[in-house]
């Protein structure tokens, strides 16, 4: 006879694997969208483009994000979460200095991403 603890651990294990798989898929979609936005711009990047880049169907992308806007919202949140606030040398940065450092950091990140993406598209050739 199976005890209830045994059944619960299998169910929990399945849910954990499903959640991990979902997290992996979301990360892949966001990385593809970020790459395509860096190359083509956000206005010209569509959900179909993201799906094509990932060699999957647009319906698969829509399983994780209800719209193109939802993908962009998550990308902006991801950029802001990954960007550390400027640490001024003197300990007192003005808002303008912080904003300048933030925008400069974003610009450098986009340039680096464009270099990587263009190298990927050219197959490592320059």
General description of the model:
The structure is a single chain. The chain is an all-alpha fold and 126 residues long. The chain has one domain. It is built from five helices and no strands. α1 crosses α4 (68-82).
Provide a short characterization of the protein structure.
The chain has 126 residues and is mainly α.
Structural class: mainly alpha
Low-confidence stretches: none
Question: How many discrete domains?
Answer: 1
Q: Could you report the average pLDDT, rounded to the nearest whole number? A: 78
Overall geometry: globular
Largest sheet: none
Order of helices and strands: HHHHH
Strand percentage lies at under 5%
Number of helices: 5
How would you name the oligomeric state of the polypeptide chains in this document?
single chain
What is the rounded distance between the termini?
A: 65 Å
Helix content: over 70%
Gyration radius, in Å: 20 Å
DSSP summary, beta strand count: 0
